[in-house]
């Protein structure tokens, strides 16, 4: 790969040098020579690194942690439309931010921070039509993330589908996802409560998953999805009053630290456990099917058994979290948590 790049670099250098040589022969004025040298130098530095893939968007799905030439190509295109990120070849935090911010500014794109087919087409349109993008317009760029009073890091990109929300990583208090919808799945209640909602990419995936379960004669029900910061605040306070803070911390979250605020989570249950959210759901046909099949649709069991020391939560077979298919497969097939998965990524 490197030698190929090197060869290409030399090739470009030869062309550039031979161009300059030709111009010299035509005896142009000194100031013109200077100018041409300047432009030659400029295109020399930019083209040497971007030429192989310039304006050519990769076909492959790329996301946080991806690495290679395709990532460089994407990073160069993002820079071409106005972003200013390092073309490092690693799909890092800044690349995730740029893609998420871009997706937010487009109509009809799932906002996930991952680069896929539809995002590719949108980028192509923007390039073809010279559409103006204002970097950071929808998701302001943050160099250093802030902290809560309890020293949890506040994420600057809550729309990232791989966003980490736990007892050390919080969502901004004012974060209300703009793409909340009610998935077309069965609920054990009829009122239109906010907890029916999920962010669109997660809701669509959940509809597919519930349909697949139904096709196998299983009865999955959605119990509780999106929860606002304020609602979590009220809940957590009531749990502390009832059970004390230490106990409440094991099954609930401080406001900002609940995944339910992300809109990427749903608590799932079934008639077999009378629509309750308890450990025995994991032993039902529905619970077992969910654990085996959720990754196919981009979901994970977020708080698995035996990982309490990492997640800091008790086992919750009912709490599923959308992370997209690539990460979900990796996490579920290797019996790891989101925390462990993110730690393995080069970011
Ligand atoms: Zn939950």
UniProtKB/TrEMBL annotation:
Q: Which residue windows does the record flag with biased composition (Polar residues)?
A: 36-52
Composition-biased stretches (Basic and acidic residues): 53-62
Which Gene3D superfamilies does the UniProt record give? Answer: 3.30.1380.10, PGBD-like superfamily/PGBD
Task: State the CDD domains in the record.
Answer: LD-carboxypeptidase
**Where is the segment annotated Disordered?**
27-66
Cite the D-alanyl-D-alanine carboxypeptidase-like core domain residue spans from the record: 196-325
User: Which molecular function GO terms apply here?
Assistant: carboxypeptidase activity
Q: Which residues form the Peptidoglycan binding-like domain?
A: 67-123
- Signal sequence range: 1-23
One Pfam short name: VanY
UniProt keyword Protease, yes or no: yes
**UniProt keyword Signal, yes or no:** yes
> Which terms are listed as keywords in the entry?
Carboxypeptidase, Hydrolase, Protease, Signal
**Domain of life of the organism in this record?**
Bacteria
Q: Which GO terms describe its biological process?
A: proteolysis
Q: Can you name this protein?
A: Carboxypeptidase
- The species this protein belongs to is Cerasibacillus terrae
Recall the taxonomic lineage recorded for the source organism: Bacteria, Bacillati, Bacillota, Bacilli, Bacillales
